[in-house]
Design a protein that fits this description.
The protein has 117 residues and is mainly beta. 0% of the residues lie in helices and 55% in strands. Strands 2, 4, 5, 6, 9, 10 and 11 form a seven-stranded mixed β-sheet that branches. It has a four-stranded antiparallel β-sheet with strand order 1-3-8-7, with no helix packed on it. The chain starts with a strand and ends with a strand.
Length: 117
């Protein structure tokens, strides 16, 4: 199983980058895919989750409004659209896949997003 994030980089405050998580080696419909982030010196925090069983989505309360998760089942890809970024959004953003039936847990290597003021 492999999860590969892309789309990070240096962004100006107010920018709207789009991250992608490409999943391989798994049956996409059998997994919930989530986005997390970890800022320097802070714990990893959840952003959003897409549930494969019904296509439902969940957002952490502090993330609602500026972040949108979406799926492209044909491409086994989950995207995270981020809007109106602030310097405090600077973090490494990770993709996570958890098996619905197995509970198996997989992480991508992360992609750095740096927001300049």
């Amino acid at each position: 199983v492999q999860l590969v994030e892309s789309g990070g980089g240096l962004v100006q405050a107010g920018g709207s980058p789009r991250l992608s998580c490409a999943a391989s080696g798994l049956i996409f419909d059998d997994y919930a895919i989530a986005w997390f982030r970890q800022a320097p010196g802070k714990e990893r925090e959840g952003i959003s989750c897409w549930r494969s069983s019904d296509g439902d989505t969940y957002y952490a309360p502090s993330m609602k409004g500026r972040f949108t998760i979406s799926s492209d089942n044909a491409k086994n890809t989950i995207a995270l659209q981020m809007n109106s970024l602030k310097p405090e959004d600077t973090a490494v953003y990770y993709c996570n896949g958890r098996g619905r039936y197995t509970g198996a847990d997989y992480w991508g290597q992360g992609t750095q997003v740096t927001v300049s003021s």
